[in-house]
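It is worth pausing here to work through a concrete case rather than discussing structure prediction in the abstract. The textbook approach is simple: state the sequence, then state the predicted structure, then interpret. We follow exactly that order.
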Amino acid sequence: MRVCVLGLGQVGLPTAKYIADKGKEVFGYDTKQEVVESAEMQGIKASSDWQKIPVSDVYIICVHSGLQRDGSPDFSPIFEVCKKIYEKSLSSPPSKTCLVSIESTVVPGLSRKVYEEIFKRRVKLVHVPHRFWVEDPDRHGVKQPRVIGAIDNESLKEGLSFYDKILHIPLSTAFPIETAEMSKIAENSYRYVQIAFAEELRMVCDKLGIDFNEVRNACNTKWNIEIPEARDGIKGHCLPKDLRYFLSLTRNTALTKSAILVDNNYQIWIRKGEG
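Step two, the predicted structure:
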């Protein structure tokens, strides 16, 4: 089995290394030459030239999904690599259908769109949204419980075989594929709102002269309460981006919009040295 990982960043490179450790032939692709060189230094055959990537049995998409200047989702990198995979798949015999797994974060409907409009229904397609925490890659890295959605039953069967039997990654089935797509942005949006509440609670406690950490510890003794820490604001890439993906879906997002306002106010509060 030959596997190609597209996108060798924070998630893609550990994914490629994990699969290679399972004894599979792995090729990595990334448009940035310095990223390719870093992957090669860590034992992964990689290239920024798509023509040098051989036809593979499995393609795993880990490219960056981001935001446009107006804050709307930007999935152009995903569309571009899907086109490359489709062109490459045409070199395979008609009887051999490759498996494509989108691990990048997307919105509901994107997987079905690329399946019909780019892949022309010629591939098996699954969505296995990544869960990766750089601060603890051993416990919360590539091999952690995840969800899998599929475009059809055949794709689901192929995806489960690859992730479960070959990679030994525990999976929960989310069917149809839109459920899996929604789950990723929902879980990160939920986390954003949780942290925003902790930030607001900290500001309220400070105003009243009460120790926030003592209040947090007291609350967390209850079985269904887990207030997170309030640090220096909600930063990084995933949570702010995925919350905006969530906001792009509908206007009924008053709570999440308020969470953004709270975090903005909290970061100003921290910068002023009031925290």
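Step three, interpretation. The CA atoms of residues 193 and 259 lie 6 Å apart. The longest helix spans residues 177-208.
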